[in-house]
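Good morning C.,

I know you're traveling, so I'll keep this short. The sequence:
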Amino acid sequence: MVGPSIDVVGVGNAIVDVIAEVGHAFIDDHELVKNSMTLIDLDRANELEVAMPSGITASGGSAANTMVGVAGFGGVAAYLGLVAADDLGEAFRSDLRAAGVGFDVPGKVDGLPTARCLIQVTPDAQRTLNTYLGVSAHLSPDEIDEALVASASHLYCEGYLWDMEPAKAGIRHAMDVAARAGRTVSLTLSDSFCVNRHRDEWRELIVDRVDVAFGNADEFRALYEVDDLAHAADAVAGDVDVAFVTLGKAGSLVVSGSDRIRVVADELDHGVVDTTGAGDLYASGVLTGLSRGASLERAARLGSIAAAEIIGHLGARPEADLAAIAEQILS
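The C-alpha cells, ready to paste straight into the viewer:
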C-alpha cells in the first residue's frame, strides 16, 4: 500500500463568511437564534446582509478553516467543496490557495451561487451563524477526487455538510475511499442543532465509518441523548477509536478506550474577541499532530494553542504563525 503524500484532506461546505460585530438588540430585532447555526434561503441572506453593519468578508466554512489551520502549522492540506463560477467562488478559491491549501474543484456554472455565512458577533464574543448553502450543499460522489482522498493521511468531514442527499452520498463515498486506502476518517459534529437533525444517521455513520470524532460537550451529549458528559464519553469510546471533546475555558477531553485525558486550555496575551472557528482550529492542531505521529495529549495541546489564537481576533482564520506559537509554548 502506497503511503500518504499529504497530511489532511477536508470535505465541507465551501462558504464565504461575512462577519460583523453587532449589539444584542440586533439578534432580537431580527429574530435570530443566538450562538447557533441556522440555514436560510437566498432572500433571507440578502435581507440580513443589508441590515448588518460593515465587517469583514473572507472565505470560510468549517472544514476549510480547519485545513487553513493545518497549513498554518506547516502541514500539507487540501480541500474538497463546491463553489459557483462567480465572484464569491473565485474569492474563496484565491483565499484558500493563498493560505497554502490545495483546492482544485472547478466552479459550477449556470446554477446556484456560492454559499455565504452571515455571522453576527455580540459583545460577549459569541457568534450567531446564518447560512445560505447555495451550491455547496450539492457536493456529490462525482466531485470527490478519489486519488486525492487516498493520498491523505487523514480525511476530515464536516457535519454541517450533512443536510442534502447528494452531500451525504459524497461524504460516505469519501469515507469509503479513505478506508480502502487505509487512512484515518474523522467527523466533526459541528453544531448541536445538526446533531439533533441527524442523530440516527450519524450514530450509524460513526459506528460504520468514523475513526476519530470531534465536537464539544453539548454536541456529544446530544448525540447520545444523555445529560452527563461522562456517560457520553463512555458511549463514544465504544463507537470510535478516539474522540476529542472541547470544553471551552476548561480545555478539552480526549477519549480513547478507557483512557480519559484532560488537556488545559492555552491562553495567549489577548482577550476573547470572537469564538468563531475555535472548534475548527482546535481540530487543525489535533489533525496536524496526529498526522505527524504526536501523542493524543500533544495533539490536543496543538489544538488548544490554535483555538487560543483564533478567539483573540475577529474571523475564523489565524493571523499569527501557529507553528511558531506552538514551538514557543511546547518547547
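Safe travels,
E.
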